[in-house]
Amino acid sequence: MTEMTGARALVKALEREGTRHIFGISGGSLIPICDELLNSDMRFILARHEQGAAHMADGYARVLNKVGVCMATSGPGATNLVTGLATAQIDSSPVVAVTGQVNRAVIGSDAFQECDIIGVSASVTKYNIQAMSPGEIPEAVKKAFHVANTGRKGAVLVDIPKDCTTESADIAFPDHVAFRGYTVNAAPRPEELDWAARILAGAERPIIMAGGGVITAGASGELVELAELLLAPTATSLMGKGAIPGDHPLSLGLCGMHGTMEANMMVPKSDVLLVVGSRFSDRTTGKISEFAPNTKVIHVDIDRSEIDKNVETVTRVVGDAKLALRGLTDRVKAMRTTQTSSEWSKRIHEFRCEMGENGEERPPYLRAPKVVRALRQELPRDAIVTTEVGQNQMWAALHYDAYLPRTFFTSGGLGTMGWGFPASIGAKAAKPEVPVVDIAGDGSFGMTENGLATAVEEGLPVVVVVLNNNVLGMVAQWQRLFYDHRYSAVKLKGNPDFVKLAGAYGAEGVRVGSYDEFRAAVRRALKADVPTVIDVPIDPEENVMPMVPPGMGLKDTLMEGA
Amino acid sequence: MHTVSFLVENQPGVLFNVSNLFRRRGFNIDSITVGALEDPRVSRMTITVDADPKTLNNLLDQLDKMVEVIRVKRLDPLRTVRREMLLVKLSTRDPMAREDALRFINGQHGLVLDIDEESIMAEVSGEPEELDRFLGNVKSIGIVEMSRSGVTALEKGRLTL
């Protein structure tokens, strides 16, 4: 026990959890904490909006597989975090938010900058906790990190009244926290593995679908080993991108609304579908009754509540993806001899169609798929890419091959426009030595572009590729395809000049008019010590294809716009 | 109708989190009762819910996942005692009505808690379906006011939560 203020207790507790970076914005209720941070080696990265701070912490967490910390003041600061927490939570990213709160005596009185953030954040966090005395702060922090970073990871919020941070008390730092109601059972049950392995070993047309859980569990090696053993073509969800190298012969790419032809054609034809660490989002399955109607679905997930939630399974394995895949591989190996080729896996080539390279050029526009493919060629294999949401996200998912896990990040579940840029700043803070590129659209970038100030100030030279069609492209695509070209509330006529915008922040800005200029701009940007915004004019009429029309099954995938 | 019991940490906000879960996942619950256990750090909640098996399983899993929920179980319908308490005030200005009211209350082994010139207040307990029947019987007498506690339940014999 040592006597110290709550603010110091918080800072020490964060340090004890291994925190190196805090993304946030100060405010009235945080002043004692920020003052105490002057005595710490932790780096406070000052965002320009709390939503951006939360996304930065999220991007940081996804890159390092470690808790990302964000901080905001009471009231509006805290409510501004909500989108960021919801984004992290649904994508199972370990983020801890620390929020200031008004003094204990005035809680509930609608005091200045008071908001019931515990109530507000309850639906978008895995857990939240309010420390009501300085002595409770270390345990609250310990609990928050433990819950955020174990089991199915997620967002946790710790709310601290200001007077708890100024008051002194005898403080103890617990080494462990115990929850009677929260246990993490990572090890799968042997009988579940046995049963699943028997079904897999007997499969004639097996498919594996890998979700974000494979990446979280660090199970890519095990995934590829099992895929090769079964000769199972392997698709990914959006969150699973990178779980199997995009250039692996068994890789099918993305499955779902904007999945590849080979993934969307083969998944419904499979007789056994092994789904690992994916939750069958409606965007992944298409019309659920046509997703895999004659398929035995085996679901591996650490979160029991995901099993049978959206898709009926024949059997389940509850547990950590790495342990589960290891266990399945060992069992399948014992049950059958290794094959070297199968007719089924060769059918990938039957369905694969050339995407992206051969569309019609319409100067002065560049074609987005070709830009994304050029970007891939200019970046090293371990480069990190984040995306925004909308057409840019789907072009990135379809045309940017991720070769390694934890190199492709996107707001898959919540679909948060404006996520990619601040997330890229968090990613760069996590791995300064690796090139980090945000594949953006003009609409999304407009939502969090003020992060340029942070990136410049903190010396985090990320690259933003703005696929600029001056329109909210994905909504416009739906209006074009399903609403008879009736464009409503999508045209962004007032977009700024992104080159000048970058310049105004002290970043580099460049507009490109050809693929060669684009490649040159990327190469320059990778060498720059300030962030670079590359403005790429693309055709507002261009659609993301393939596409499964909403409400249809995967087999109804269209290659061309109607 | 299924009966689900679960133990939770007896902390502020837990009831909010539980009901918030029901709301956002779209589970329609019929009743909920809460009370602390012999260990005051733990509360037992009991809900009744009408749900298909898939929804019920998901509800159990979602509850189990909550950090504050210690244990959750669907109680075996064949081996569970389910009880509910009803407080009801019946209009008894008419002497005949008073006779009828007392007859129904006694028939259900109820307790008369208060009597004045105009009404009788009674406490009646039993299985929720019994209370439904009781209320059907006394409806014609005239219900001034009523309050039901919601169902609480325990499994028989060796079965425990």
Task: Explain the layout of strands and helices.
The complex is a heterodimer of chains A (562) and B (161).
Chain A: E1 2-5, H1 6-16, E2 21-24, H2 31-37, E3 43-46, H3 50-64, E4 68-72, H4 76-80, H5 82-90, E5 95-101, H6 117-121, E6 127-130, H7 137-149, E7 155-161, H8 162-166, E8 168-171, H9 190-201, E9 206-210, H10 212-216, H11 220-230, E10 234-236, E11 251-254, H12 261-266, E12 272-276, H13 282-285, E13 296-301, E14 315-318, H14 321-335, H15 343-351, H16 368-378, E15 384-387, H17 391-399, E16 408-409, H18 420-430, E17 436-441, H19 442-448, H20 451-457, E18 463-468, H21 473-482, H22 498-505, E19 508-511, H23 515-527, E20 532-537
Chain B: E1 2-9, H1 14-25, E2 29-36, E3 42-49, H2 53-65, E4 69-74, E5 80-91, H3 95-107, E6 111-115, E7 119-126, H4 128-138, E8 143-155
Antiparallel strand pairs in B: 1-3, 1-4, 2-3, 5-7, 5-8, 6-7
Short synopsis of the structure:
By secondary structure, chain A is α/β, with parallel strands linked by helices. Helix content of chain A is 37%, strand content 17%. A six-stranded parallel sheet of chain A has the order 3-2-4-5-7-6, sandwiched between helices. A six-stranded parallel sheet of chain A has the order 11-10-9-12-13-14.
